Amino acid sequence: MVSRTNKFRGRSRYHGRGKKAGRGAGKRGGRGNAGLNKHKVMTRLKYMPGHWGMHGFNRHPGLRVVNASINLGKVAEIAEGDSINLTEIGFDKLLGRGTVSRPLVITVKEASSRAIEKVEAAGGKVETEDDEDWGEWEEE
Predict the structure, then answer these.
(1) 40-70 pLDDT, tens per residue?
(2) C-alpha distance from residue 25 to each of 37, 85, 123 (Å)
């Protein structure tokens, strides 16, 4: 029996592979990532989303500052008495969206200036950790 390659010796120009298949990486449309913006566009879109462009960076988790914040309007709804400790509930920062109609004493780690203005305008007070730290500095 004659081997396949010997069968085509001298008789055929492309050895039974067609015109492009026998040339380098012709049948697969180029080597590697060749043609990603031409004939392999759908492959890129389906299997390689976000292949091009800038993709950001990851900061060290110790450097990330993520505040669990709450708006003033929501605090006014939640507060049952005349005072509320947001730190115990699990909130870090008080923001100024919404209104407060009664005097409240709010204890929180941080508060925006607008939130403090609104609470004081209603006759209440915002106690932050910054205020407590300041007191320690003055004592020394």
Answers:
(1) 999 999 999 989 888 888 889 899 888 899 9
(2) 18, 69, 78
The count of other CB atoms within 10 Å of the CB of residue 122 is 16
User: Does pTM surpass 0.70?
Assistant: no
| Cα distance from N-terminal residue to C-terminal residue, the chain | 102
Q: pLDDT of 94-107, one tens digit each?
A: 999 999 999 999 99
52-88 burial by CB neighbour count: b if 16+ within 10 A, else e? eeeeeeeeeeeeeeeeebbebeebbeebeeeebebee
- Choose the CATH number for 1-56 among 4.10.990, 1.10.150, 3.40.1130, 3.40.50: 4.10.990
Asked if residues 95 and 69 have their Cβ atoms less than 8 Å apart, the reply is: yes
Q: Which residues touch 84 (CB under 8 Å, ≥6 apart)?
A: 75, 78, 104, 105, 106, 107
For residue 62, the 8-state DSSP code is: G
